[in-house]
């Protein structure tokens, strides 16, 4: 039995949206699923208890950051990432590829891997498919991501094709380097904005028979319509019995559009980052808490919300005060609210798929959400 | 029945240490008691639930800060400070005097009150005994502090005597300005480092028959021996049936020495501030978590500690990583640990008083604590 398996419960005929269950060594979780990001062995400002309470089931850890600090040896010595950070449910680790490629002039790519300088101390570092897998093996995440290049946008066809070919060679090296029975390797579909290269990528990865497939290289600056078009042409080629993960996407409109195109898994720093910037996510758009609209607003962030902040009676006026005063508890409340909001959003999408009314859900949500966002700037 | 009353349970004959119960409109709490500081309607980084969980019973709110932001009218509109910040147990508010006098050249004192410039926006502001009480009335704290001048150290006799006389006139104006049945006003003993002025202050305050008395103007830079000497000569004059509060003191050695001199209540930013600076308080001294001693230390901050961090299995190595990485969850764990430590410290002191072995407790603690602090820098 592979470490990671996917069970399809219902597929929405009109759109391709899927309700399923993801089975991992640390539990079985309903999909579609949103994974909060715990970059440095902590989802910023939030405790593992709070994550469980708000319904998070898998979190993402960043191999690049943990490789540099505190280092894989220390985390292995501390019992692996789950034990080190006291998180009992699922963990997916990225490969570090996205971060090292983002370093721009500070990195150099060869067939062997990528040489780069640490953003912490400027020291020279090296990551390769084998090293990325060795780090993720030490971390002991449930889902391991292949070491890839996320092609920037725009990129010409030659660059994209060459990069894709190397990413596929790297994926095979990653697969060969896997040693643990309790981990599953996901391949990452690349190919930039070229439909045929995406198709080539999918075909090569399917041949590797991996337990899951991610779609990478999207939401990198291209227009949303192009992103959705590439996403759709990619997901229709992916096998129905494997989970599909759209990397780095987490705004509500992108989530509903991703689900509509058959995506099962998402991650993004968006909900936690906007919380630290003083913003609350709601069903009708974002609230900028510093806004004077909320000075005398003694209502919760959202009516009938079950998050810690709203059910605890914390008001917009109080949270606004905390944000203005720079109090950590303010960003804690907003982080808990935003993460709850996205978990609730995913639950409601899943229910709509099960009930056969996902197209209505999608249409109604986008109508309300977009217009409210526009009004609130 | 006054809003605030004190019940003496047992007095240690050898030292004068007292175990008692403080009755307030928001509950009855065992003393001696340590009050965490919630400057801006939040104990930094901590939720009210967490405060209850670690055994905090009264917290302190700062009138100066809340006066400037968000302002007393907004907090009254939000149901008072308890409701605004969702804290069900006791609140003591200071008068704002300490903060405005700390502003140095930015403030001007007259008989009427103090004119000062806001540290937030530089705007001209005014606080007087009547305004301080009006603000604290709006906040709805259980214990209201009189508006006083905390005389700096050193200060000559003439300045100290003049300041004390004004502080006593202000105390009477405060008493006159009180309007709520559910609040009790504490007077503040001043008089600098002059025993006779301290005695004069005590006599005048006792004549006012207030529900409690604070000792102010200590721990302002004087040598510890002088502080203990002044404290002792003050507390012996205070009535046994009223609570005594030593303001702004919260290091473990000062707490045990304060209790030994008959103090029942303490507050200090110390445990929360050192947590944010990456330090853990323990029975044997402070741990500087960035220290490489803890890199591979997979033990809890303190053995057999019942705090959230220690009982949750978070290790020194993990917390060190979080502190170095600047993760908010690291300072949350340290804050919860330090506040628990002080609550536990107070509980154990109280038990020692009840068991009749407080002198042993004091001797043993100071021997272990001081030597360990010296070793660890």
- Amount of helix of chain A: 40-55%
Oligomer: homodimer
The coarse overall form of chain A would be globular
Count of beta strands of chain A: 16
Strand order within the widest beta sheet of chain A: 4-14-13-12-11-10-6-5
Average residue-wise pLDDT of chain A: 96
Which range does the strand content of chain A fall in? Answer: 15-25%
Uncertain spans of chain A, ≥5 residues at pLDDT below 50? none
SS content category of chain A: alpha/beta
Most extensive chain-chain interface: A-B, 39 and 40 residues
Distance between the termini of chain A: 50 Å
* Largest sheet features of chain A: 8 strands, parallel
Number of contiguous helices of chain A: 15
**Rg on CA atoms of chain A, Å:** 20 Å
Task: Please explain how this structure is put together.
- In chain A, β8 (114-117) and β9 (124-127) form a beta hairpin.
- Chain A contains 15 helices and 16 strands.
- With 377 residues, the first copy, chain A, is α/β, with parallel strands linked by helices.
- In chain A, α7 (157-177) packs parallel to α8, α13 crosses α14 and α14 (328-355) runs antiparallel to α15 (358-376).
- An eight-stranded parallel sheet of chain A has the order 4-14-13-12-11-10-6-5.
- The first copy, chain A, is globular, with a radius of gyration of 20 Å.
- The interface between A and B is large, with 39 and 40 residues.
């Amino acid at each position: 039995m592979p470490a990671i398996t996917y069970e399809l419960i219902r597929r929405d005929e009109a759109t391709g949206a899927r309700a399923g269950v993801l089975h991992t060594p640390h539990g079985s979780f309903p999909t579609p699923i949103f994974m909060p990001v715990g970059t440095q062995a902590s989802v910023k400002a939030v405790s593992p208890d709070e994550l469980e309470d708000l319904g998070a089931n898998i979190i993402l850890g960043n191999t690049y950051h943990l490789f540099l600090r505190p280092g894989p040896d220390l985390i292995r010595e501390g019992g692996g990432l789950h034990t080190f950070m006291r998180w009992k449910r699922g963990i997916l680790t990225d490969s570090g590829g996205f971060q090292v490629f983002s370093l721009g002039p500070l990195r150099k790519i060869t067939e062997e891997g990528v040489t780069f300088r640490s953003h912490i101390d400027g020291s020279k570092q090296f990551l390769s498919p084998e090293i990325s897998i060795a780090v993720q093996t030490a971390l002991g995440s449930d889902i391991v991501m292949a070491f890839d290049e996320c092609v920037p946008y725009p990129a010409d066809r030659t660059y994209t094709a060459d990069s894709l070919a190397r990413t596929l060679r790297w994926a095979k090296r990653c697969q060969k380097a896997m040693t643990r029975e309790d981990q599953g390797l996901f391949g990452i579909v690349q190919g930039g904005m070229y439909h045929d290269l995406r198709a080539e990528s999918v075909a090569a990865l399917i041949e590797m028979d991996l337990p899951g497939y991610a779609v990478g290289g999207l939401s990198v600056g291209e227009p949303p319509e192009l992103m959705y078009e590439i996403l759709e042409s990619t997901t229709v080629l992916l096998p129905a019995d494997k989970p599909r993960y759209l990397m780095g996407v987490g705004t509500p409109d992108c989530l509903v559009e991703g689900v509509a195109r058959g995506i099962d898994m998402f991650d993004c720093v968006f909900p936690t980052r906007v919380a630290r910037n003083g913003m609350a996510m709601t069903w009708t758009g974002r609230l900028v808490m510093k806004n004077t609209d909320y000075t005398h607003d003694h209502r919760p962030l959202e009516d009938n919300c079950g998050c810690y902040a709203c059910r605890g009676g914390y008001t917009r006026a109080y949270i606004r005060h905390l944000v203005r005063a720079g109090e950590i508890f303010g960003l804690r409340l907003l982080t808990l609210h935003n993460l709850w909001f996205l978990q609730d959003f995913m639950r409601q999408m899943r229910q709509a798929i099960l009930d056969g009314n996902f197209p209505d859900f999608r249409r109604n949500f986008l109508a309300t959400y977009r217009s409210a966002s526009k009004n609130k700037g």
